[in-house]
Design a protein that fits this description.
Elements: H1 2-11, H2 23-33, E1 38-40, E2 50-58, H3 64-74, H4 82-101, E3 107-110, H5 115-128, E4 131-136, H6 150-153, E5 161-164, E6 170-173, H7 179-193, E7 197-206, H8 207-210, E8 215-216, H9 218-234, H10 239-247, E9 250-265, E10 268-277, E11 285-291, E12 293-299, E13 302-306, E14 310-315, E15 335-341, H11 350-355, H12 370-377
Helix pairs in contact: 1-5, 1-9, 2-4, 2-5, 4-5, 9-10
């Protein structure tokens, strides 16, 4: 699981391999209690079996006024093991969803590539004695769930959803006007529930329906990448080369961070990187705009690689993925490398591009596939 955290932190495009939300406690709990996690390829799951996403609603933090009112409620929980709190909320979310829909799930799948979301799905499967699907519903991380998700591209209903906080408080979203509204409602429910993360069970449909909504075998890919990087670090090798060899990523830029900005707005982390080029990129500037994750880039002020393709920023020495979460980091002066990875094929369909592209965030930029962008810059 630590290897998964290392690999998925990079592929998430703005998350951390460090313990941000209690993932380390969850991993420890799985090993300490002897829970078994069975990772199964989507191709091995029968069409008629029901699968559900189990995830953590989060991102950007909770409103200060809500935090202050919740202090008397959450203080008694500080003495309780973090993994136990997460586990109890996950189990209740699963139970509430099952009772609401009348469906029992065969297994669980992660909503996106992420140290947090991937481990939430693995933990849910272990706690419930079910399988965890080897893959996720995005192929990277993204804000604005459920609209920006392959479930939306595949036409899978975005509700119901059961949200449960560490107090056991439960909200079930029966329906919403559309996926955008479902995402807004979920985000604001998370904010008022008051925790850094809120476990959620949602999208319980058949595996037949999920086939077009899952990037297959991506969990194991993250594990392979993370293992190669970890071994390179331990053996004083080259973690960056290990990442490139196992991921097939393209090097987009290399340099020093000139500036980094982040602002929390309604539960999202917005901001921008400005990176000054070094080595073969000397004399050039690279900018990246993020909303929780890296979304849009510019090379010398010209639009470059954008979502849904992946923009991964790592430390140049140990290939550690750099995050937008937690305490505002001081990245200025940091030596970094920016990598790109092409989006999963379903994102590159007409429906996929209409669902997720720079215009969704108010930018007058059309999506151009990463390979096309790179060919044009050579």
């Amino acid at each position: 699981m630590q290897d998964y955290r290392i690999g998925s932190a990079i592929l998430a495009c703005g998350q951390s391999e460090d313990d941000m939300f209690g993932e380390g406690a969850v991993i420890k709990a799985i090993f300490d209690t002897g829970l078994k996690v069975k990772l199964v390829s989507p191709s091995e799951i029968p069409d008629d079996k029901f699968v559900s996403q189990v995830q953590a609603q989060g991102g950007g933090g909770v409103l200060q006024e809500v935090q202050e009112r919740l202090v008397p409620y959450f203080e008694p929980l500080e003495k309780k093991d973090r993994a136990v709190l997460i586990g109890e909320s996950i189990k209740k979310a699963i139970r509430e969803m099952s009772e609401f829909t009348g469906k029992e799930c065969y297994g669980y799948v992660a909503s996106c590539t992420s140290p947090l979301q991937g481990i939430m799905a693995l933990y849910a499967a272990a706690l419930d004695g079910k399988v965890c699907v080897d893959g996720d519903c995005c192929g990277r991380a993204r804000p604005a769930y459920p609209f920006v998700c392959l479930t939306a591209v595949a036409g899978i209903p975005h509700s119901p959803a059961a949200l449960v906080n560490f107090l056991g408080e439960t909200v079930i979203i029966r329906s919403a006007a559309d996926a955008d509204r479902a995402g807004d409602i979920r985000k604001l429910v998370h904010v008022i529930l008051g925790a850094k993360l809120t476990p959620v069970a949602t999208c319980p449909v058949s595996m037949k329906d999920y086939r077009k909504a899952i990037v297959p075998n991506y969990t194991s890919k993250c594990i392979t990448i993370g293992k190669a990087i970890r071994k390179a670090r331990e053996e004083k090798g080259n973690p960056v080369e290990a990442f490139v060899e196992t991921s097939g990523a393209y090097k987009l830029f290399q340099g020093k961070v000139k500036s980094y900005e982040r602002e929390a707005i309604l539960g999202y982390a917005y901001g921008e990187w400005v990176i000054e080029g070094t080595d073969e990129f000397a004399g050039h500037t690279f900018k990246v705009w993020h909303k929780n994750e890296n979304m849009i880039s510019w090379l010398d002020d010209q639009p470059y690689v954008t979502c849904p393709d992946s923009i991964c920023i790592v430390e140049s020495k140990n290939c550690k993925g750099l995050t937008h979460f937690g305490k505002i980091p001081d990245y200025v002066g940091e030596k970094v490398i920016v990598f790109g990875l092409p989006a999963y094929e379903m994102w590159r369909t007409k429906q996929g591009i209409e669902t997720w592209n720079p215009r969704r965030y108010g930018f007058n930029i059309d999506y151009r596939p990463l390979d096309e962008v790179l060919c044009g810059s050579r």
